Amino acid sequence: MSTPSLLILAGDGIGPEVMTEVRKIIDWFGAKRDLAFDVSEDLVGGAAYDVHGVPLADETMAKAQEVDAVLLGAVGGPKYDDLDFSVKPERGLLRLRKEMDLYSNLRPAQCFDALADFSSLKKDVVAGLDIMIVRELTSGIYFGEPRGISVNASGEREGVNTQRYTESEIARVARSAFELAKRRGNKVCSMEKANVMESGILWREIVQKVHDEEYPDVELSHMYADAGGMQLCRWPKQFDVIVTDNLFGDLLSDVAAMLTGSLGMLPSASLGAPMENGRPKALYEPVHGSAPDIAGQGKANPIACILSFAMALRYSFDQGAEADRLEKAVEKVLADGLRTADLMGPEGGSPVSTSAMGDAIVAAL
Amino acid sequence: MSTPSLLILAGDGIGPEVMTEVRKIIDWFGAKRDLAFDVSEDLVGGAAYDVHGVPLADETMAKAQEVDAVLLGAVGGPKYDDLDFSVKPERGLLRLRKEMDLYSNLRPAQCFDALADFSSLKKDVVAGLDIMIVRELTSGIYFGEPRGISVNASGEREGVNTQRYTESEIARVARSAFELAKRRGNKVCSMEKANVMESGILWREIVQKVHDEEYPDVELSHMYADAGGMQLCRWPKQFDVIVTDNLFGDLLSDVAAMLTGSLGMLPSASLGAPMENGRPKALYEPVHGSAPDIAGQGKANPIACILSFAMALRYSFDQGAEADRLEKAVEKVLADGLRTADLMGPEGGSPVSTSAMGDAIVAAL
Ligand SMILES: CC(C)[C@H](C(=O)O)[C@@H](O)C(=O)O
Ligand SMILES: CC(C)[C@H](C(=O)O)[C@@H](O)C(=O)O
Fold first, then answer.
1. Which ranges of chain A have pLDDT less than 50?
2. Is B237 considered catalytic here?
3. For site (Important for catalysis), what residue positions does UniProt give (chains A, B) (predicted)?
């Protein structure tokens, strides 16, 4: 097999500085584990807008379609707040998701033992937490037409967005959730608002059907998304895999991430259908945002982005053992007490810089 | 002024039994404080379906339009799970909200001192918490057309719902939030997904405009709803009033309610435009659901419903002092250690029944 290719889109804010640390990790795997990658870099978000006037150039989009995996930092920042909707940094990310057809967004919410005290939740509620949220990522209200702001029949402006889900869109992300569950706790909880929305009724019906026909041995439950939000806060360990739509997934995965107290630590994978070489189309990115307030100060935590590369090793390159190795290295530096600024408790201490954290993880490897 | 009128719709599950306790409170105010109400009762939800074949009869709807305030228990239960969408118990509640045009849903998330330990969050994160979520209740994706499940051009079934907000719908709920803020901490945070949805862009623009033109002295901030969910879990005390749309409000208010650890304690008010007598159209209901699993066992906590009546005293009948009196009575029985089953900690103890809790509150009055 030829050298696998990686496209790095560092993006805005702290994106470039955390990506610098990921490069160190990638280089280590090339040098020490004979796992070389053909790495290229390009622009996305505000960084792309500054150069091209759009948050993702067509050539970058084309490159993303060709590589084996994309690694993304973060997009957005106050500098771009007043841009027109169509060229906002976020549109670059949304275009990648849509055109690569990355319908299954895996967002693990894991609580690292060494960090359980950082959660605003009681330690026994979150210690050892390990759930996986599977969010549908290419449809629903994020992409449905009609959409926009226009003047209605009464002469008033009206803002419109459309939630739209087809049977096959629901079925494929449900399959992705059931497949994951089989390799984890064998339990899926599907969340929607079938009591209020017809799209939720179809969602529930299709998830149930995929279950009954293809995954009868996985335990399946359904929950209204508002109750799901409550239950995540009350006792998150009741869940194993949660599958939900694009918008609910956006909210619920952020709530779940915050519960762990480890926001700067959480990676994500966005996967599509298999390419010719058998690998899924894939984009990996940290759950955290571009954090413009601390950008360029060496304060950012590179771990979420590094663990996103670990997910790439696992889901794109079939290197589960190497992914484990990288995750263990991260756990080790945390257990050793190394902390970036975001992980400083009220008792203080002296934080390490972004690059010191990256170096320590390389050393632990 | 003639005797104010109240329509009680106890509904399903624990609705009737908690409402029995509210009746005791209403009777006490009539007998001891010269605050008589003209009370009538009717059916909603599954209870109405069982009799009328619809979850809200037209005559009940007409009555609700005429009274000064509606007091609702809860709707729904497994018995009705397989009913057609159009006659599900929830449709009765949604019809009341829509036809009474109750656009402003006030959901206080308050942490009772005596109960701070019940939260899954750390005590210092929630003790003393007192925020107010103002949820738009008559528009958005709950009611937008087109909606439904139909076969699309590719021959596949598709579920569709439409988020639709006009300028005036946004402006009136924003006003309601700013008015509340003036009587509280003078701070409003508006939540949407303006980075992804055009309806969110219009929402942000109009909230800002109402602020600038009518409430420049209230502090206003904007947050994406996913970040809002995170911040609610991280440090909820940063908020005073939160204003948001119907669907985000559904999720975020449930998350906020769960944070307090006092779900069985939280009331809500749904208010519309002033009627001829100057009172707003109004419906009051607990935030909790119908809890079919414990219905009829005397285990339900009547406090949320009793505090919903306190909100009625305050917002419909201009009896703020009497509302305070009732809220103090509730605090007193809690401080005295009285607990219904839902408020039993892991250390156990002996819970009091629904009716014993009601009696104790009457006694404390
Ligand atoms: C940046 C934004 C467009 C994005 C989303 O809403 O999907 C983000 O919140 C996320 O969850 O990845
Ligand atoms: C019962 C249901 C229709 C309702 C809603 O979704 O609005 C409930 O969850 C609520 O928050 O009042």
1. none
2. no
3. 142, 193
